[in-house]
Structures are given as C-alpha cells and as structure tokens.
Design brief:
By secondary structure, this protein is an alpha+beta fold. It has 3 domains: 4-152, Collagenase (Catalytic Domain) (3-Layer(aba) Sandwich), CATH 3.40.390.10; 250-339, Immunoglobulins (Immunoglobulin-like); 353-434, Macroglobulin (MG2) domain (Immunoglobulin-like), CATH 2.60.40. It is built from 7 helices and 23 strands. It has helices spanning 4-20, 53-66, 71-74, 76-79, 100-107, 142-152, 227-241, and strands at 25-30, 39-46, 82-88, 114-119, 126-128, 132-136, 197-200, 203-209, 250-254, 260-262, 265-273, 278-287, 293-298, 303-308, 315-325, 330-339, 353-358, 365-371, 378-383, 389-395, 403-407, 414-422, 425-434. The protein has a 6-stranded mixed beta sheet with strand order 1-3-2-4-6-5, sandwiched between helices. Strands 10-16-15-12-13 form a 5-stranded mixed beta sheet, with no helix packed on it. A hairpin with a 6-residue loop joins strand 17 and strand 18. The longest helix is centred in the N-terminal third of the chain and has 17 residues, at 4-20. It is globular and about 80 Å long. The chain binds zinc ion. Zinc ion binds at residues 147, 151, 158.
C-alpha cells in the first residue's frame, strides 16, 4: 500500500533527478492506473553503457511480452493489477554494476513495489528480500521473474531441493505456506487433493511440497503456479494493494503457561478469533536446541492437542501455536516448559526396539523402523568400515511406530555399521550397504 505523500516525494525526486542526471530516463511500459491501487514493477539495468542500453531494453521487452503465459499473470483481472516501469540507467563501464545506492536512487524515479535489476553479466538469479529480484543478461527470463514474484508477492517457498546452493536442512520457517514437515495433506486439503511430494526448500528428505511440479520447483519446465500458489498470489497481491485485511487473529493458549513443569499427558487448547474467520491452528513441538516439528493441524473447534509427555526424554521444550485466519494472517504464541517424568515413569513394559532397517542395500536413504510404546530417546550412530563416526541421528519423539530416516545420498559406496542407543543404553547394531 502506498500513500499520497510518497507520490509527492517522488514527484519532487523526479524533477530533481531530471535536472541532475539527464540519463535517468524512465518509461511506464504498462499503465493500469494510479500506483496507489496497483503493484508497480520497475526494471532497471546495471552495467549497461549508453551503447548497450538497447540490449537491456530489448531484454525487458521480451520478458514483459511473455509474462502473460504464466497462469496467474494470464488471468486478465490479475494482469490489470500491475504497472510496469523501465528505468534506463547508464553505467560508465560495461558489465560493472552501478553502486547499490546509485541503483536505488535511479530506480526511485518510479514508485516501485518490486525492483527487478538486470545485470550486464552472468550469475545466479535470485530474490533479495523483501522486494528485489536480481536477473542477468545472458540467462534471465520471464519464468524466473514469475518465480521470484512467487516469493515476493505470494510469500511462497522454493519447492525444489536439487540446488547447487549449500543449504542447511534446518526445518521450517514458521510462515511457510507451501512447504510442510508432514507427508499428509491436512494443511492443504482445501486447495490440493493429491498427497504431497517429498523434497522442498533445498531438502531432499523430511519436507514436503504440495504438487510434483510447479513454477516454485521447476520454473523452466513447469511455468505455472499450482492451486495453492495461485491462492497465495491472490492473497499476497490483495495485501500489497490493501484490498485484503492484514489484521492478526487473537490467540489464547489454555493449559500451558511459560516455565510450567509438566508430566503425564499434556492437554493444551487454543482459543482463536478473527473477523475474517479462523482457517486453522498449527501446533509445533521442539526440544530446546532442536528445530520444531509439526504435531497437529486443527481445522475444527475446539482447537486442542493432547501430548503424552512420557514419550519424551525429560528436559526443556517449546510448544508453538499458530493461528491462521482465512487470509493467512497468523499469530504465534510460544510456551517454554519443562518435561519431568522422572517420578511419573513407572516401568518399561513395552520398550522400544528396532524391527526393520530398509532398504538394504540403500541408494538415497535408509529407514529405521521401531516398535514399542514407552518413552525413549533413540540415538543412531553410524560408522564407516574404519570405525569412524559418520553421522549421529537422534529422535526424542516416539510415536506408535516411529521411523527415523538416514540420508545416505552424499556417502561413498561402502559398508556402514549402525549402533542404536535407547536413553544412552546400548541397543541393536548391524550393517548397511550403501550402493549408488
Ligand atoms: Zn526461489
């Protein structure tokens, strides 16, 4: 949303810049009306000399002429939400970027919501939050722009995992719309009917995306948003334009206060209200120092979760509760508490045990399947044939039939040994063949 004072300042800037820097020409390529009621995209080149500026202009034109082949932009009512501007910044030296401040000041002759910089050399395209897209003269194209607008406007995450970018698979950001850590469809059932696919957000395992392909996964071959992405773009555009409310829901947590000490079964309820209606409540659980894991998505009142704390090792935990309204505004409440079942735990009548390790030989991942109901911390240590520790996986949450995954795709082909510990007590051990 933009206000009038913004435009007044821009008008002043424009007159100043025209006097000071006659090179900062700009053109409104697509004019759908007042910038206060539109999303303004501004292209600017960097590293183009006056002799090369035509290359930049033709690249911008090529991209704009194809944007409407991507489904969200092909919808006429969406296309008319956009204004597109082109700023022709002249660089003194070919292929060398203007200083960031120079780019910013020249781009600001237009009232942009999103700035798309085309650099006159080749590099990896990407988004710079909150609203800058970096493109490169030799490789950029309209599907990359649409993908990056999926991040900026739709707040969508990447749905691919085969990235050259070294990235730590560190769980979910709390605002993630289109990536989830559960292979069930409960979060997206209103938009996507199929089961989710594993692999997203640079992680091959443990995170799921809504559809096999989409522009957020493989923009070159699938230049289209999936149903969830289309909805996210609608909501995101509405929030930028001020036509969709951005008020966070009210959220109250019953049954758990900060620094409580809990044992046995923990019953937590959430009371959430919002003018637009509550869409869902998400409960996440984390052991201190670990990434959080989704435990329940509740779409019907009363919103509540029941957690048997005897399934966890004693220690410090966090319960995150997120309430989403129907416009995907959310409120998050975090409770820190301690689990102490030292005295509550009576017996290990049905201790955990390893029942299956598969596939073996393994190519990409090995699954360790356990049975048994009592609580335990399960630790799996993996050694190479030289007896060196290769990896250590711990899981504190023992569900009815927990499965712990071990990603072996980066390991050399060989035989590996595993040793399992339950609450630091030695359990089963065995061999796994990794064959790529
Ligand atoms: Zn991306």
């Amino acid at each position: 949303m933009k206000n009038n004072i913004y435009n007044i300042i821009f008008s002043l800037l424009i007159s100043v810049l025209i006097v000071v820097n006659a090179d900062a020409d700009f053109t409104k390529l697509i004019d759908n009306g007042d910038s206060n009621t539109k999303i303004d995209l501004t292209f600017i080149g960097s590293g183009f000399t006056s002799a090369e500026i035509c290359d930049y202009i033709s690249k911008v034109d090529q991209n704009i002429s194809k944007m409407n082949t991507v489904n969200w932009f092909a919808i006429p009512s969406n296309a008319t939400l956009l204004n597109v501007w082109r700023v022709d910044a002249i660089s003194p030296t070919s292929g060398i970027d203007l200083a960031e401040a120079e780019i910013n000041s020249q781009a600001q002759v237009t009232p942009y919501d999103v700035l798309i910089i085309i650099h006159n050399y080749n590099d990896q395209e990407g988004v710079r939050y909150p609203n800058i897209v970096d493109l490169y003269i030799y490789s950029h194209n309209y599907v990359v722009i649409a993908h990056e607008l999926g991040h900026i406007i739709g707040k969508l995450d990447d749905e691919y995992y085969n990235s050259h970018v070294a990235w730590k698979c560190d769980g979910l950001s709390k605002r993630t719309i289109n990536v989830h850590d559960k292979p069930s469809n409960e979060k997206w059932s209103d938009y996507i009917s199929t089961q989710p696919y594993e692999g997203a957000r640079f992680c091959e395992f443990g995170l799921w995306r809504p559809t096999e392909n989409s522009i957020m996964r493989d923009s070159a071959n699938t230049p289209a948003f999936n149903a969830l992405g289309l909805k996210a773009m609608d909501i995101g555009a509405g929030k930028i334009l001020g036509t969709i409310e951005t008020n966070q829901p009210n959220l109250e947590i019953i049954g758990l206060n900060n620094n409580d000490i809990k044992s046995g079964v923990l019953e937590v309820a959430a009371i959430a209200t919002d003018d637009s209606g509550i869409e869902r409540i998400e409960f996440y659980w984390a052991k201190a120092g670990d990434t959080s894991k989704s435990i329940k998505i509740d779409k019907t009142e009363p919103y509540a979760v029941s957690i048997d704390t005897t399934r966890f090792v004693d220690g410090e935990y966090f319960l995150d509760t997120l309430a989403y309204d129907t416009n995907w505004n959310y409120t998050r409440v975090t409770r820190r508490f301690e689990v102490n079942n030292l005295h509550a735990r009576v017996s290990q009548a049905n201790p955990p045990k390893l029942i299956k390790v598969y596939p073996n030989p393994a190519k990409a991942k090995v699954l360790f399947q356990f049975a048994g109901e009592q609580s335990s911390e399960i630790e799996i240590s993996i050694f190479n044939i030289a007896g060196e520790l290769v990896s250590k996986i711990t899981s504190d949450f023992v569900s009815e039939q927990p499965i712990i995954e071990w990603n072996v795709s980066g390991l050399v082909k060989s035989i590996y040994m595993y040793k399992i510990y339950y609450n630091k007590q030695v359990g089963e051990s065995g061999k796994i063949m990794v064959s790529h």
